[in-house]
Automatic annotation (TrEMBL):
It holds the Pfam family TPR_20. The keyword rRNA-binding does not apply. InterPro entries: Thioredoxin (IPR005746), Thioredoxin-like_sf (IPR036249), Thioredoxin_CS (IPR017937), Thioredoxin_domain (IPR013766), TPR-like_helical_dom_sf (IPR011990). GO terms for cellular component: cytoplasm. Belongs to the thioredoxin family. Transmembrane segments: none annotated. It comes from Halothiobacillus diazotrophicus. The keyword Electron transport applies. PANTHER family: GEO12009P1 (PTHR45663). This is Thioredoxin. One of its GO terms (molecular function) is protein-disulfide reductase activity. Keywords: Disulfide bond, Electron transport, Redox-active center, Transport.
Length: 288
């Protein structure tokens, strides 16, 4: 790796130009090392390998701390190896010790977006606008062409489809995800949102649904529709109240729709949300 255009040794006189100034164009890892340091000898080839994998989007500057003691002192290096990431002239992050490859890559991912990550970000930004769906998903199609086995791209697509109301297509994607991805909190939340939207369906306005329930408290179909609408309006407590009433009045209604609706809302809110904790206790009391 010594002849790599992306890996180079640097001394104090050239540090400003080759690292600080150059980092405005390309992020630069700075590896402070020494010949006598065993972990340094383990880490350096690994850093070089990772740098090479970025194909010019990252460079590695090696600083021999024994020969460049003033430079090491200036940056407060207290142990070897110490690795700093310089972007736009600033040290944005650092670590010490010979970390494994996976941790180093995670360290870099926080600050350096890959081409796929940039495309995913572009899709998320477009999704927040009025851009047509075809334009929104185009970056994800490009990302999938680069990494066809990247399940994160599919999750992004499902998330966008849910936001645009394409619920059936989104659920089809979510149901086809690998097992290790299907258990992620975001995937569970998206499925829950789809289920809640299906409770709502198209129908009368909220006020009319409330009037129907006032006229007949046992109109569970209307309660279910109201609960779904309230959930979509993010009136989660109101939705939980309606689902709870359905559950209290008839556990058999629409395949236990009350309980299923509450569980979906717990998934959307998260286990630590006060509403989840409160209504979970109420559900437990009703069940037992």
């Amino acid at each position: 790796m010594s002849d790599s255009p992306y890996v180079f040794s640097v001394t104090a006189p050239e540090f400003q130009a080759r690292v600080v100034d150059a980092s405005h164009e390309t992020p630069i890892l700075v590896d402070f090392w020494a010949e006598w340091c065993g972990p340094c000898r383990t880490l350096m080839p690994l850093l070089a390998k990772i740098t090479e994998s970025y194909e010019g989007k990252l460079r590695l500057a090696k600083v021999n701390s024994d020969e460049e003691q003033q430079l090491a002192s200036h940056f407060g290096v207290r142990s070897l190896p110490t690795v700093m990431l310089v972007i736009n002239g600033q040290i944005v992050d650092q670590f010490s010790g010979a970390l494994p490859e996976s941790q180093i890559r995670d360290f870099l991912k926080k600050h350096i977006l890959s081409d796929v990550d940039k495309l995913r970000q572009q899709a998320r930004e477009l999704a927040a606008t009025d851009a047509p769906l075809e334009a929104v998903v185009e970056p994800l199609k490009q990302a999938s062409g680069i990494e066809p086995n990247n399940a994160d791209i599919l999750v992004d697509l499902a998330d966008i489809l849910v936001g645009r109301g394409e619920l059936a297509q989104a659920m089809e994607i979510l149901n086809a995800l690998p097992i290790d991805v299907a258990g992620r909190p975001l995937v569970k939340e998206l499925k829950a949102r789809i289920n809640l939207a299906q409770h709502a369906s198209e129908g009368p306005a909220t006020d009319e649904l409330l009037a129907r329930i006032a006229a007949d408290e046992n109109d569970l179909a209307t309660r279910e529709q109201l609960a779904g609408q309230l959930a979509l309006q993010q009136d989660y407590e109101g939705a939980l109240g309606q689902f709870f009433e359905i559950m209290r009045r008839d556990r058999t209604f629409n395949d236990d729709a009350g309980r299923r609706g509450m569980l979906d809302l717990f998934e959307v809110l998260g286990g630590d949300h006060p509403l989840t904790k409160n209504w979970r206790r109420k559900m437990f009391g009703l069940l037992h």
